[in-house]
Amino acid sequence: MKLIFPLLQEQLDLGREDKVNVLVIENPSYFVHFLNEIWKASQKETSEIVFSSQHVPLDMAKKLEILQTFVPFETNRKNLVTKLYQYAEKVMMGEEFFVSTQKLMQDHLDYITKIAQNLPFPLDFSDTFEVSYLMKAVDLRFDTAYASLGEQVVDYMESVTMLEGEKCFVLVNLRDYISDREMDAFYQTVLYKKLKVLVVSAKDYPLSGYETKTIIDHTLCVI
Q1: Among candidates 70, 26, 46, which has minimal Cα distance to 216?
Q2: What is the pLDDT of residues 11-51, one digit of tens each?
Q3: Least confident of 19-23, 133-137, 145-149, 160-164
Q4: If you placed Cys at 44, which of 61, 94, 111, 157 could pair as Cys (CB 3.0 to 4.6 Å)?
Q5: Residue 210's closest CA among 187, 177, 185, 180?
Q6: How many CB atoms lie within 10 A of CB 192?
Q7: Are the C-beta atoms of 36 and 119 separated by less than 8 Å?
Q8: Burial class (CB in 10 A: 0-12, 13-18, 19+), 120
Q9: Which InterPro entries does UniProt cross-reference here (predicted)?
Q10: Average pLDDT over residues 147-156
């Protein structure tokens, strides 16, 4: 997957396996403009930013995710938790767990029936329910206890990739929250897991050995 926009003479190769692409935009107005164009691409609107594969433009409506709020970093986004439940339901109804899942559901109904019979009210209830009810009852969700923001972001991106398919993640100003050492570890993991990432920053930081950097300075010169 490659990215091109008007100021660049060469495409950014987001599929590199040896380096993570970093784009530094020091001009505030163009920084905002670039992010707006990225957002348009993610919404299937006309954008001057083009993503392509083998010289063919890509529809990025479902293949692009912009992350820019890292404190707090929300892992349990509603649409992703829904996909988690769907995935877990397939496991629960699969060959390995089907019998035990059916028994658990029947035991649950038997228990509710006994409770209803011991209440001094005329009651009625459904004798069927979705498997997802069991997960909602215990509030199944993604773990948020991380010692490192970098690790949490990587796990989130990997979960999204597994549940929603391959995406390009645009990380806006992530570098402001992570030390040089932690950033190196983050890059190593991203490259190892072959995640497609573009780090966009409004200011420059020391160059890491795991990144390839393009700088657009205050005068809109590309360095």
Answers
A1: 26
A2: 899 989 999 999 999 999 999 999 999 999 999 888 999 98
A3: 133-137
A4: 61
A5: 187
A6: 10
A7: no
A8: exposed
A9: CRISPR-assoc_prot_Csn2-typ, Csn2_sf
A10: 96
Strand duo 64-67 + 168-172: pairing: parallel
In angstroms, the Cα distances linking 95 to 92, 100, 101, 105, 162 are 8, 10, 10, 16, 21
**Cβ within 8 Å of residue 40, ≥6 positions away:** 46, 47, 49
DSSP H helices in the chain: 28-42, 78-92, 98-117, 132-137, 149-164, 180-192
Work out the pLDDT band at 178, boundaries 50, 70, 90: very high
Residue in 22, 6, 5 with CA at minimum distance from that of residue 210 = 22
* Complete domains list, the chain, with CATH: 2-74+143-216 (3.40.50.11940), 79-137 (no CATH)
- Rounded to whole angstroms, the Cα distance separating 143 from 157 reads 14
The whole-angstrom separation of Cα 38 and Cα 76 is 23
Q: What is the pLDDT of residues 181-203, one digit of tens each?
A: 999 999 999 999 999 999 999 99
